[in-house]
Specification:
The structure holds two protein chains of two kinds. Chain A has two helices and five strands, in the order E-E-H-E-H-E-E. Chain A is α+β, with helices and mostly antiparallel strands. In chain B, strand 4 and strand 5 form a beta hairpin. Chain B is globular, with a radius of gyration of 23 Å. The chains are: A alpha+beta, B alpha/beta. The structure holds flavin-adenine dinucleotide (FAD) and FE2/S2 (inorganic) cluster.
Amino acid sequence: MASLIVTTRDGATRPLPADAGLSVMEVIRDNGIDELLAACGGSLSCATCHVIVDPAQALTLPPPSEAERELLDGLDQVAPTSRLGCQIAFDERLDGLHVTIAPES
Amino acid sequence: MSDYDVVIVGAGQAGAQAAIALRQLRYRGTIALIGDELELPYERPPLTKAYLAGEKSFDRLLIRPSAFWQEKAVDLRPGCRIVAVDPGARQVTAADGTTIGYRHLVWATGGAARRLDCPGAALARVHSLRSRADVDRLAQELPAARQVVVIGGGYIGLEAAAVLVGAGKQVTLIEAQQQVLARMSGTMLARFLEAEHRSHGVALRLGTEVRCIEGRDGAACGVRLGTGELLPADVVIVGVGIVPAVAPLLAAGAHGGTGVEVDAVCRTSLPDVYAIGDCATHANAFAEGARIRLESVQNANDMAGTVARAIVGVAHPYYAVPWFWSNQYDLRLQTVGLAAGHDLAVLRGTTAARSFSVIYLRQGRVIALDCVNATKDYVQGRKLVESGIEVRSDLLADTSVPLSQALQSDGILPTRAA
Ligand SMILES: Cc1cc2nc3c(=O)[nH]c(=O)nc-3n(C[C@H](O)[C@H](O)[C@H](O)COP(=O)(O)OP(=O)(O)OC[C@H]3O[C@@H](n4cnc5c(N)ncnc54)[C@H](O)[C@@H]3O)c2cc1C
Ligand code: FES
């Protein structure tokens, strides 16, 4: 199984088993990490699934949609590689993708 | 008989989030999360969207995976219906007679789908859409159904109509008022949505009364209108709101009516009994302090946080900008604030472009926005609603000026004149 590597807010980094077909937000939530509110369940309306992608890997992802960029723009703190976890569809090709959960806003 | 420090009744959005928030605040007491449904806590919004459309499996609706609740020492009690509350003895009683004691009780029962009170309302093939069980029952009948009549032009009826017409059904939607979304939105958004639904093939019947549902062999076969006309139906969907599930609390003496009344930290009038989510009537800062109920994930989650903080002893009054979303066809609707009581509605952009916002003002202040495929307006408009300051309404309609500029000094009028 492919894995998603996640750094949580306490700074710890670990690999999570990730099913293809889920979003990065869902992989994080389903592995018991309780740091993303993900209030809108992936409907691109809350931005509470904010993660920061390892800059070295950012270009391997499909770029964010306009609506995702607009929602990210509304956040007080964004990094150049900020993404909404619900908008990154995980699949085998993303094996080893490393994301850091953004600080609570 | 078992006892818990916190008993949460209702394992839906608000109840589940209250348990999550308590553990996030490192609350160490025992927690029971009691619900009458059989499923693990799940999100309802996809029920009339991706789940009904068959695009998302039920697993993906779960608020947390099953192992989470064990790990966090939250005792789930599915399939358990609470029928009575005894605030003196500090215990609740389940339908099977079991009693459960509490130090703090959190009432998070949402509401039951309102039924029509006309003949035929209880026939088979008449469906409401509140729970997974409701949607699964409907889904079983859909393959054999050709004609669907949806009663109620609120969000649930509109979303269901969009999915079902997309699945090739012949859909008629009946609304008693002269517009859809009459309770929450102005006519500009309503007219746009009505046109969208019509262009996708939904037959809309506005200002139309239902006399009864006609049946054959115990199952619905049509909807009889006030005019006497019969609309044949293989399946009838009723989306006419909810009745908050507060009877046991009111019977125990809590103040309330259609909902249960709560104060700024979600306390009811009974000692150590809180209420949150769809069933809680509260004074909302974004409704000029009027006492209202909100039916949204935002309200459920934010009240859950309020209650958790109150229980751990760091109470904070509930203060959160209301927001809501809906998906119909390829339209992303996003609402922020509460439009009720607006005295001006400004259209920003054009409905023909299928990307626009309706901005609602009261006395020169932006109180709400309905945004359609216009996430930037939704994001920037939220700040206008939050700020509560007066803006120049002439700037709002100009799409060449970002909404955020209506907030900057040149956009603000020092007085209300002009
Ligand atoms: C089809 C649908 C689509 C929606 N779409 C959106 C949307 O797009 N965006 C949005 O913001 N909101 C949406 N909502 C609204 C949102 O889901 C609700 O506001 C939210 O679920 C409210 O949470 P709650 O915990 O108050 O109630 P619920 O989630 O309804 O949970 C209450 C639970 O308590 C149980 N219960 C009731 N009485 C008892 C009892 N006596 N004993 C034990 N258990 C009991 C109920 O069975 C239920 O499981 C939608 C709702 C529905 C039904
Ligand atoms: S979960 Fe709401 S935007 Fe990602």
